[in-house]
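user: Please review this fold.
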Amino acid sequence: MRLVWHGTDEWRQELCELTLSGDGLAATGAQLGNAPQPYRAAYELEARGDWVTRRLRVEVAGVGTLELRHDGKGTWVGVENAAELEGALDCDLAFSPLTNLMPIRRHRLHEQPGAVDFEMAWVSLPDLKVHRDAQRYEHLEPGLVRFSNDGFTADLELDEDGLVLTYPGLAQRAG
């Protein structure tokens, strides 16, 4: 499937080609943005086996390439501060609605009640810095999940697969 999101807070476009399976996904995509400075990022994402991120490769034109690999149990390689990320099962690519999918699907929060706290390997753009980031996802009703971290809250509108349709303050899916 092919998905497109456009930014609602800044000018930004993302195109993603995605294959979903019963226990994960494989995706390639590109993001163009204008803030904090103009950038072009291309990514490959694999999250297989219980919707846990196994690999994220991001290349930003003029900046470089980051490749994170994960053992499926909480250990990351490919980044200097891997010890800081210990225990995080997922990545979160800045400005990308796609990377909300793994924690939502793993816990079926788009379908059933629950609230779960996560630690993420958050990748900022365009500088490709990686930091640990605490996030919370809470089922509000089918197709509506509240995302929060560090004082920020957004109620994500999702499709039947758990993919973001609307991420208030960040992105809207086209089409």
Q: What stands out?
A: The first strand starts at residue 2 and ends at 7.
